[in-house]
Amino acid sequence: MSTQDHPPLITLRGELVSLGPLHQGFIEPLTRWYNDPTTLLLGGDDLIPTTESRSAASWNKIIDEENEKRVFFGIYENAGMLPIGMCNIRDINTMHRTGEYGISIGDAEYRGKGRGTEATTLLLDYAFTVFGLENVWLDTLSVNIRAIRSYEKAGFKEIGRRRAAHRIGSNVYDIVLMDCIASEFYATRTSVIPNPF
C-alpha cells in the first residue's frame, strides 16, 4: 500500500506535522532516506547501503510485531499529508520509566523549518503521557548544531559528551548526550493528548 493510496491514520496532530503508525507504504521512502549519505550522517549512522528487500525485512519487523519496548511513528507534513520522516521511542524501561528517542527527517526540503522540533515535542508528550516515562534521552553528533538546537527547543538538555567518539572520514566528533524529564517538559507546555473525561 502506498502512503498516498488512502488518507494516513493519524495519532497525534500538530500545526506543521502529524504522527501516525508506520506501515508498508513507508518502506520505499525509508529505503531511499537510509541510502542518502546526508540523512545517514545527520543521524550519526554509518554509510552502509541497503537494498529494498533488506530494508523491508528489517522495517516489517518493526511495523508488524507488537513490542512494548518501542513505538515508531511516521511523520507527515500537514499541508499535503506526505511522509517526510519517522521518529521513535525505543528501549522503553517501565521499571525506571526511561526511553531513548530517535528521529529522521528524510527529505532535505523539510529540514530546518520547525517540523522536527514539533515532531519531537509531540512524541515526548506521548512518551510521558501514554507510557508514563519520566526520562527520555538521545545522542547526536556535536557537529549537528541544527539538531541540537531543535532538541533544546523541544525540551532536551545536554547532560554530557562521549569525546572523539564518532569519525567521519578524517574528522572526529563528540557524541552529545541529552535528556528531557517530564516535570521540566510540562513546566512550559500542556499536553496535546486528549483527555475525554
3D structure, described in words:
This protein has 197 residues and is an alpha+beta fold. The chain has a domain at 12-134: Aminopeptidase (3-Layer(aba) Sandwich). It has six helices and eight strands, in the order ββαααβββαβαββα. It has helices at residues 27-33, 37-42, 52-64, 115-129, 145-154, 182-186; strands at 12-13, 17-21, 71-77, 82-93, 98-105, 135-141, 157-168, 171-181. The protein has an eight-stranded mixed sheet, sandwiched between helices. α1 (27-33) crosses α3 and α4 crosses α5. The chain starts with 11 loop residues before the first strand and ends in an 11-residue tail after the last helix. The relative contact order is 0.15. The model has no long low-confidence stretch (mean pLDDT 91).
Write the layout of secondary structure elements.
Layout: E1 12-13, E2 17-21, H1 27-33, H2 37-42, H3 52-64, E3 71-77, E4 82-93, E5 98-105, H4 115-129, E6 135-141, H5 145-154, E7 157-168, E8 171-181, H6 182-186
Parallel strand pairs: 5-6
Antiparallel strand pairs: 1-2, 2-3, 3-4, 4-5, 6-8, 7-8
Helix pairs in contact: 1-3, 4-5
